[in-house]
Write a structure and sequence with these properties.
The chain has helices at 2-14, 24-33, 35-44, 52-71, 73-96, 102-110, 117-148, 155-183, 197-200, 202-210, 213-230, 234-254. It is mostly helical. It has one domain (35-254). Helix 2 runs antiparallel to helix 3 (35-44) and helix 3 (35-44) runs parallel beside helix 11.
C-alpha cells in the first residue's frame, strides 16, 4: 500500500502540469512568450475554453483597425479604386453574357461608396464576424488533418490553439494598418515594404504583402500548438499549417 502511494506521488511530481490549469490571462501572455509550454499545459489539464476572450479581443482590435482605415481618405480611395476596377471588369462581362443589366451594374457601383452606410456596415461587421469565421474554418481544417494523423485531441483544444494564436495576427493587422497609413498605400511588415505595386505588378505585390512577419509567427505558433495538443511531431503539424497557408496566399493572389 505504501509502495503504491509512493509511486503515485512520484508520477504527480514528475508531471506537475496535470495539476496546474492556466488562467486565460496566463494563456494569452504565454502564447507570445512561451507557446510550447503554454500548449503543453493546456493539453494535460481539464478542458477549458481559452479561445473566447482572445477572439473577442481580436474583434475589438479589428474594429480599431477598420476605424483607422476609414479615417484615411487617401488609403480608402486607393483601395476602392482597385476594387471598382476589378468589379467593373466582372460586371462588363456579366452584361455581355446577359447576366446583369446596366441598371443593376449602376446600383452595385453606387453601393461601393466609401462614405455610404453599406461600406461602413461591411467594414465594421466584417471586423466583428471575421475572427469567428476564421477560427471555425481553420479549426475544421486542422481537425481533419489531425484525424488523418490519428492524433489524440479534443476539438476544444484546437479552438484554443487557433483562438490564442489569433492575438498575434490581430496585433500584426493593426500595426500593418498604421504602417499603411504612414506609407500612403496598403502594406504589411514584410517584403511588401521593399517594393511598390507599380514595380512588381498587382498580383506579385499582393503575394508579397501576404508574406509578412506576423503571419509567419502566427502560423508557427499554431503549428507548435497542434503538435502539443495532438501529440504529433512538429514537422507533421507544420506541414499542414504552412501547406494550407501557402495554398491560400497563391490562390488568393493569382487566381482572382
Amino acid at each position: 500500500m505504501n509502495e503504491e502511494n509512493t509511486n503515485l506521488e512520484e508520477i504527480n511530481s514528475e508531471d506537475p502540469l496535470q495539476n496546474e490549469q492556466l488562467s486565460t490571462a496566463d494563456a494569452m501572455s504565454g502564447v507570445i512568450t512561451s507557446p510550447a509550454e503554454t500548449f503543453e499545459t493546456i493539453a494535460v489539464t481539464p478542458k477549458k475554453n481559452y479561445w473566447l476572450l482572445p477572439v473577442l479581443i481580436c474583434a475589438l482590435i479589428g474594429l480599431a483597425t477598420s476605424f483607422l482605415f476609414m479615417q484615411d481618405a487617401e488609403l480608402v480611395d486607393k483601395t476602392m479604386e482597385k476594387q471598382k476596377k476589378k468589379m467593373m471588369e466582372k460586371f462588363e462581362q456579366n452584361i455581355k453574357d446577359g447576366k446583369m443589366t446596366q441598371e443593376q451594374v449602376d446600383k452595385a457601383m453606387e453601393s461601393m461608396n466609401p462614405k455610404g452606410m453599406f461600406f461602413k456596415i461591411m467594414g465594421f461587421g466584417g471586423a466583428i464576424v471575421g475572427p469567428f469565421i476564421i477560427l471555425l474554418l481553420l479549426s475544421v481544417i486542422y481537425l481533419i488533418a489531425l484525424k488523418i494523423f490519428k492524433a489524440e485531441f479534443e476539438f476544444t483544444n484546437i479552438l484554443n490553439v487557433v483562438g490564442l494564436a489569433m492575438l498575434i495576427a490581430a496585433i500584426g493587422n493593426l500595426i500593418s494598418m498604421v504602417v499603411s497609413i504612414l506609407k500612403g498605400d496598403f502594406s504589411t511588415i514584410g517584403p511588401g515594404l521593399l517594393f511598390s505595386e507599380a514595380a512588381v505588378g498587382e498580383k506579385t505585390y499582393s503575394l508579397l504583402t501576404k508574406i509578412d512577419v506576423f503571419s509567419i509567427w502566427y502560423y508557427f505558433v499554431i503549428a507548435i500548438g497542434l503538435s502539443k495538443i495532438g501529440k504529433i511531431s512538429f514537422v507533421q503539424s507544420a506541414s499542414v499549417v504552412f501547406g494550407v497557408w501557402i495554398v491560400y496566399i497563391f490562390v488568393s493572389s493569382f487566381a482572382f
